C-alpha cells in the first residue's frame, strides 16, 4: 500500500476523529434547520488517495461507509481491510474494462451513466452477492468536464437499467458546478430533487439522492440529499508535489 500515500498530506488520527465529529454536527444541524428527520442523511467518507492508516482512524471514530475513485487503489484497500462491516462506494468514472472488479468488490456505484456499463455490472456481479446498488449520474450543470447524462435522458436510462437483475437502482447522483452562494448552490440540487421525485412516480422504491460535498452539504441537505460525500474536511487536502 506504499504507493497510495505518496505526496499526500493526510490529517492525523486525532484530526480525523475531530473532523468526523464536526461534519456529523454540521449534518445534524442542517437536518434540524431544514426539518429533515434525524439521521436521515448518511455521511460517506471519500477516502481516495488516502492511506489505510487514515481510513483506520476513521473506522475507529465510528465511520463505516467509504468512497473511492481509483479502482486499483480501492480494491487494494478493500482486500486489506477485509471487513464485512465496511460499505464501499465507487464514485469514479467507469471504463468498460473495469466493470468486473467494481461488480465483484463494491456495494454501491454512484456513477452509472450508460446502459452498456449498467449491463456489464449486472452480468459480472457474482451470484452469491446481493444486487449492486447503483445511482444514475446526472450532469446537472451541463458541464463538458463532468460525466453524467442530460436530464432528458434519465427516463430511458432508468427504464433500460430496471430490467437488469443483478443491479438495483437506488436513486440519483450529481456533482454540480461549485458556487459559494447558498441560494445558487441550492438551485441544481433542487433540480436533481425534482427529477428524483418525478422518477419515483414510476419507481417508488427509489430512496437515494447522492449530492453535496464539504462546501455545499447544507444546501444539498436542504434539497433532500440522503448521502453527502465528504473527503477533504475529514482527511485533509490532497497535496501533490
Task: Tell me briefly what this model is.
The chain has 241 residues and is of the alpha/beta class. The protein has helices at 13-33, 52-60, 71-81, 99-105, 115-124, 154-162, 182-200, 217-222, 232-235, and strands at 42-46, 65-68, 87-90, 108-112, 132-138, 167-174, 208-210, 227-230.
Give the overall shape: globular
Strand order of the largest sheet: 7-6-5-4-3-2-1-8
SSE order, one letter for each helix or strand: HEHEHEHEHEHEHEHEH
CATH homologous superfamily (4th level) name: Alanine racemase
Q: On the 0-100 scale, what is the average pLDDT?
A: 94
What is the count of distinct domains?
1
> Using DSSP, what is the number of strands?
8
Number of helices: 9
CATH class: Alpha Beta
Helicity, as a percent range: 25-40%
Architecture in CATH?
Alpha-Beta Barrel
Q: Beta-sheet strand percentage? A: 15-25%
Biggest sheet layout = 8 strands, parallel
From the alpha carbons, calculate the radius of gyration and give it in angstroms. Answer: 17 Å
- Structural class call reads alpha/beta
Molecular structure report:
The chain is of the alpha/beta class. The chain has a single domain (2-235), classed as TIM Barrel (Alpha-Beta Barrel). Helices cover 40% and strands 17% of the residues. The protein is built from 9 helices and 8 strands. The chain has helices at 13-33, 52-60, 71-81, 99-105, 115-124, 154-162, 182-200, 217-222, 232-235; strands spanning 42-46, 65-68, 87-90, 108-112, 132-138, 167-174, 208-210, 227-230. It has an 8-stranded parallel beta sheet. Helix 6 links the parallel strand 5 and strand 6 (167-174). Helix 1 (13-33) packs across helix 2 (52-60) and helix 4 packs across helix 5. It is globular.
Amino acid at each position: 500500500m506504499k504507493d497510495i500515500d505518496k505526496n499526500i498530506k493526510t490529517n492525523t488520527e486525532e484530526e480525523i476523529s475531530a473532523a468526523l465529529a464536526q461534519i456529523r454536527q454540521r449534518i445534524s444541524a442542517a437536518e434540524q434547520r431544514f426539518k429533515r428527520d434525524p439521521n436521515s442523511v448518511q455521511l460517506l467518507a471519500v477516502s481516495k488517495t488516502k492511506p489505510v492508516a487514515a481510513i483506520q482512524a476513521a473506522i475507529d471514530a465510528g465511520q463505516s461507509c467509504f468512497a473511492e475513485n481509483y479502482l486499483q487503489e480501492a480494491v487494494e484497500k478493500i482486500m486489506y481491510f477485509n471487513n464485512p462491516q465496511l460499505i464501499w462506494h465507487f464514485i469514479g468514472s467507469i471504463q468498460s474494462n473495469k466493470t468486473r472488479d467494481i461488480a465483484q468488490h463494491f456495494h454501491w456505484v454512484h456513477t452509472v451513466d450508460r446502459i452498456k456499463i449498467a449491463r456489464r455490472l449486472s452480468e459480472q456481479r457474482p451470484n452469491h452477492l446481493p444486487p449492486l446498488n447503483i445511482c444514475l449520474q446526472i450532469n446537472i450543470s451541463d458541464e463538458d468536464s463532468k460525466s453524467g447524462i442530460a436530464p432528458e435522458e434519465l427516463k430511458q436510462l432508468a427504464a433500460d437499467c430496471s430490467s437488469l437483475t443483478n443491479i438495483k437502482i437506488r436513486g440519483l447522483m450529481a456533482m454540480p458546478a461549485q458556487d459559494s452562494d447558498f441560494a445558487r448552490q441550492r438551485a441544481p440540487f433542487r433540480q436533481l430533487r425534482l427529477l428524483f421525485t418525478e422518477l419515483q412516480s414510476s419507481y417508488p422504491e427509489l430512496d437515494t439522492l447522492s449530492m453535496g460535498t464539504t462546501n455545499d452539504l447544507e444546501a444539498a441537505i436542504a434539497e433532500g440529499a440522503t448521502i453527502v460525500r465528504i473527503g477533504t474536511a475529514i482527511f485533509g487536502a490532497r497535496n501533490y508535489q
